[in-house]
Amino acid sequence: MKLENRLDVITKRCGSVMAENAKLREVIDHMLKERSSFNVMWQRMINKLNCEKRHIMDLVEQATSAFDQREELCTKLQTLKERGQSDKTNHIHEMKELQRKLDHDAKLQEFLAIKGQQRLNTEQQEREADKRRKKLEEMERQFMEYDKIFQRIILLSGEKETDKIISKFIKEEEENYALFNYVNELSHEIEQLNETVQQLQDSIDEQKEIREMKKNSQDDNIELLKEEALKQKQSADEASDYKNECEATLLEILKAVERLYK
């Protein structure tokens, strides 16, 4: 009777261990499926994020290039305008001065010719007059070049009045400044996004390590349970064999007793 009770206890314990083992296996399988689904979703998020980052970087690069080009053009136009205005003023002043001297020389020569008191060397006067004429022609040529440049600025800007051209360039500079600030904001957002991604990646790596440790621990527990179940099964098998032997012996004893009574 005791042997049968022991066998029943061992059988129940073995069944309980096997049931617990099955539950643990279901939990592990569920966790593995969840991890697989999470990895797929995470990879999709990473791919989408990388695509958005590349798009933002392209926009930033294009905006920066356009800003640099417009800034350089505005600087050159402003410098050219200031230099042209200064040269124009100087040339007009010099042209007036040369014209005044030419008029004065012409009047002087006319006066001296009339009076017969021309004291200066005619050849020297002609050389001086020729030099002044050449200088005046050179100034006129430069003035025409600056005027062409200014006309091209008018053509590019679409405005004829100088004040409107200046206002337009000031407006474009303000737009460039706003664009520059926008580029800086985008760069800052990208940096923050990279930091967030890195933090998220670190958190995921940490969770993976924790899950791996749990999985290893659960695997170890399962192995221990398997070993314990195997030992219990061996004990149950031994008990069953012993029971069979006892039953066989008891049966022989009963048969012997039965023969005695016969």
UniProtKB/TrEMBL annotation:
PANTHER family: COILED-COIL DOMAIN-CONTAINING PROTEIN 63. This is CLUMA_CG017379, isoform A. Keywords: Coiled coil. Residues 183-217 form a coiled coil. The keyword Coiled coil applies. Residues 3-262 form the ODAD1 central coiled coil region domain.
